[in-house]
Structure formats: structure tokens, C-alpha cells
Write a structure and sequence with these properties.
The chain is an alpha+beta fold. The chain contains ten helices and 17 strands. Strand 16 and strand 17 form a beta hairpin. Helix 1 runs antiparallel to helix 10, helix 2 runs antiparallel to helix 6 and helix 2 runs parallel beside helix 9. The two termini are 41 Å apart.
Length: 427
């Protein structure tokens, strides 16, 4: 049976809020933004949609990541873990990947360190499969999805597994990870070499009882999604989107699960970045009211798996990331979760508020090149909506780095959010 959208939130079923509509008009006028190109909406205490241009098609930008989160939570589950398996026989290694979106410097350094701990320092041949997706800079923002072709992965693995050829920057980054971790988590210095590294469609040791199998598990998926949303990590969002089947599978998912056709919502990327098809720019789009529906569904699916929205989406006032420079009243801390989005001509904000009058889902979509002015409008509309809903009501949330790193910066290496992509040991 298809999951129908909540009746109270059906497209077109919007009601007027005199106070917030007045604030909206005043805010747009103060920033010189054309009202015809902007949209805002929220659900009132009765679950009805209020706002302006609620059914207008709008660009989503990085707010798209909320729907990638929805798809991942629904299809994989909040506790899903990526398991990278190593098949070792003699001096030969095969890497069976899991499409882990955080298989970058930290995790690869840790993998090498763990292999050293177990006595491995050299492999004659290393093979890897199509699900081994390696990108050193997964922790940093990117504007274009990098090559994760077998040739690119081969190049990255050759660098990792030949420590004598590491650059000073690579050595410095390894030391930073080592120094941030608990004592003994990483070996003092990695020593590794590999002769041949190549792609293989088949696992040469899959049915070999003499091969040793080691597994490196990731943290639970909800922690990955949380970091993706806090930092608006484009690489991670796009990798998860592709893992699930990308646009060719996401459209049918929306149609089958929520009865939403491509004329209502369309995704070209998981990150929210534009895609060019035959030279024509394509942006993810939906409407404000549809976004309220789907954010509601995200909350429901997270909670049915015994987690909360704040476990997956950024909490302004506590989590840093894209909200680091956004200023809200002190009593708004821990009272809402949200995702930002920014493109050259688009600024967006959407999420969920916990208010004195109940939960309110909201979205603010500014289609303008005036990004700073748009953000001012958004910040003030959050206040207006929150006030209309009786004021903030803090939920029980405390920022907690989910691994071993302290809340500080080491040299020029920013780990102020305590994020780590590793968990457990290679076993």
C-alpha cells in the first residue's frame, strides 16, 4: 500500500497567518527582494499550512540533503553500517568495499595503522572492487563531484599504501589524526608498501577458506547523516544518493511512497548542486508545501527507528557547521532543527521547530542573488514563525562528539565538531 501524504498538509491546502504574512512582506521589502520569487510556509498548531507562494516551484539547493536523509533512513535504516572487508592471503589483499561515503584520509590512515598493528607492512598485490569508493578529502566542501573511477581509486590507494612516498602534508595530516585520538588509537608512524594495485571485478579470495577476512565497520548511518547535514557535505550527500540509485531510482521512490510525480518534485543531484544536461542547467526543485510533507515524513521514519530529528539534522545554537555564523535569540537554542542551502541565486532554510504550541515544520525559499539579504529574511522569519507558535520550547539535546576527539583545533586542522568516521577496530 502506498504511503499517502498527511491529509492536513496536502498541496494547496494553505491558510493565512496575518502576523507572519505581514512580517514576510516587511522583511522582503526591507531587503529589496521581489515577493513573486520568494516562498515561505509552516504548519500551525492544527497542522495546517500557512505562508505565501506555498505551491510555487522553488530551487532547493542544499535543503535537498534532508530528502537524501529521508531516502537513506527509509531504505537503509538509521543503524545501518558500512562494512569494508579485507581478504588477505599471504602477501595479497583484496578490498571489498561497501560504498562508504567517508572512506577518506581519516579512515584510510586508521586502516593502515590497524594493519600495522596486526603485523602487516607490505602487500605484493592489492585488488579492489567497484564498491570501494575512495576520496581523500571527504571531510571538505566540494563544488563538483570528484572522479571515483577505478583509475582514480588506484591512484589514491597507491599513495596510501606506499608510506615512503608520502608528502610532508600527508605526514602532517596523519600526525594530526593520531594526536587528536586517544593514546594508542593510531600507531606513531605508518610503515607500508605495495607493489601492484589494481581494480578487480571479482574477489579472488571469496571462496578461499585459507584467506583471512578482516572487517572495518563504520559508525551508524544516522551519525553520517548528521555530519552531512551539519557541514552540508556535498560529496557525502551525492555518494549516498548514488549508492541508493540516484535520480533514476529517487523519482520512482517519491512516486511509489508519496504519490509525488516529477512535475511536483525533481532531483538531479543528492547534494543540491546544479547538474548540466546537454549544456542546460538543471536544479533540484519542489514546492514549500511538499517540503513540509517530506520533512514530516523524515521525522516519522526517524522516530519509528527510535531516534529523534536532532540525531540526524543540525541543531542551531548547539551544532556548528553552516549555522556557525547565524544568530538567533538565546532561548531558541535546542528548540529547532534545520538545513541551510546556498547557490549563486538561491538561499534556502527548512526544518522543524519545537514550540509552545507544538511541532511546526517550516521552509523559507529565497530565489535571489542577494544571499546576505535572504539570510536576514530567513533569520527574522524563524523568529516570526516561532513567536506565532507561542515561542520556543527546548528539547533535550546536548552536543556530543561521537568519537574520541576533543573540542579543539590542532594546528590548522579543524576538528571542532568532534566528528570521526571510524568506530571500533579492524577485526
Amino acid at each position: 500500500m502506498k504511503a499517502l501524504l498527511i491529509a492536513a498538509l496536502l498541496v494547496g491546502n494553505s491558510f493565512a497567518s496575518e502576523k507572519t504574512d505581514k512580517a514576510w512582506s516587511q522583511q522582503l521589502a526591507s531587503q529589496g527582494l521581489a515577493s513573486a520569487d520568494q516562498a515561505y510556509c509552516f504548519t500551525n498548531e492544527d497542522g495546517k499550512v500557512e505562508g505565501k507562494n506555498v505551491d510555487m516551484r522553488v530551487r532547493l539547493a542544499s535543503v535537498s540533503k534532508l530528502l537524501v536523509s529521508l531516502w537513506a533512513v527509509d531504505k537503509l535504516g538509521v543503524d545501518y553500517k558500512y562494512e569494508t572487508k579485507l581478504f588477505i592471503k599471504g602477501n595479497n589483499l583484496h578490498i571489498q568495499g561497501s560504498y562508504d561515503p567517508f572512506l577518506g584520509n581519516e579512515k584510510m590512515f586508521y586502516l593502515l595503522s590497524q594493519l600495522n598493528e596486526q603485523g602487516y607492512t607490505k602487500f605484493d598485490t592489492i585488488t579492489f572492487d567497484k564498491n570501494t569508493i575512495v576520496f581523500p578529502d571527504v571531510a571538505y566542501l566540494i563544488d563538483e563531484y570528484p572522479s571515483v573511477s577505478p583509475a582514480a581509486v588506484t591512484r589514491y590507494l597507491k599513495n596510501y599504501f606506499n608510506s615512503k612516498s608520502w608528502s610532508e602534508d600527508t605526514k602532517s595530516e596523519y600526525r594530526n589524526y593520531r594526536d587528536l585520538a586517544k593514546a594508542g588509537r593510531f600507531v606513531d608512524q605508518v610503515k607500508f608498501e605495495a607493489t601492484t594495485i589494481k581494480y578487480s571485478e571479482n574477489n579472488p579470495f571469496e571462496n578461499d577458506s585459507e584467506a583471512k577476512v578482516l572487517t572495518l565497520s563504520s559508525p551508524a548511518l544516522f551519525r553520517y547523516l548528521k555530519q552531512m547535514n551539519i557541514k552540508s557535505n556535498n560529496y557525502v550527500a551525492e555518494t549516498i544518493f548514488r549508492q541508493l540509485g540516484a535520480s533514476s531510482k529517487f523519482g520512482p521512490y517519491l512516486q511509489d511512497s508519496f504519490e509525488l510525480s516529477s512535475d511536483k518534485i525533481r532531483f538531479y543531484s543528492g547534494s543540491g548542486l546544479p547538474t548540466f544536461i546537454d549544456g542546460v542547467r538543471k536544479d533540484n526543485y519542489a514546492s514549500c508545501s511538499i517540503m513540509l510533507n517530506l520533512i514530516t515524513e523524515l521525522k516519522n521514519k526517524i522516530e519509528t527507528q527510535n531516534k529523534e530529528m536532532e540525531d540526524v539534522v543540525a541543531v542551531p545554537g548547539s551544532d556548528g557547521g553552516t549555522f556557525r555564523n547565524r544568530i538567533f535569540p538565546a532561548d531558541y537554542k535546542n528548540s529547532f532543527v534545520a538545513k541551510t542551502g546556498t547557490l549563486m541565486h538561491t538561499s534556502t532554510l527548512a526544518g522543524m521547530m519545537n514550540t509552545q504550541n507544538g511541532i511546526s515544520f517550516f521552509g523559507i525559499f529565497n530565489q535571489s542573488t542577494d544571499i546576505s539579504g535572504s539570510k536576514i529574511v530567513q533569520n527574522n522569519m524563524v523568529k516570526s514563525i516561532m513567536t506565532d507558535m507561542g515561542g520556543p520550547k527546548a528539547f533535550n539535546y546536548e552536543f556530543e562528539g561521537f568519537h574520541t576527539y576533543p573540542n579543539e583545533m590542532v594546528k590548522d586542522f579543524d576538528f571542532s565538531d568532534d566528528f570521526s568516521s571510524i568506530e571500533g577496530e579492524l577485526h
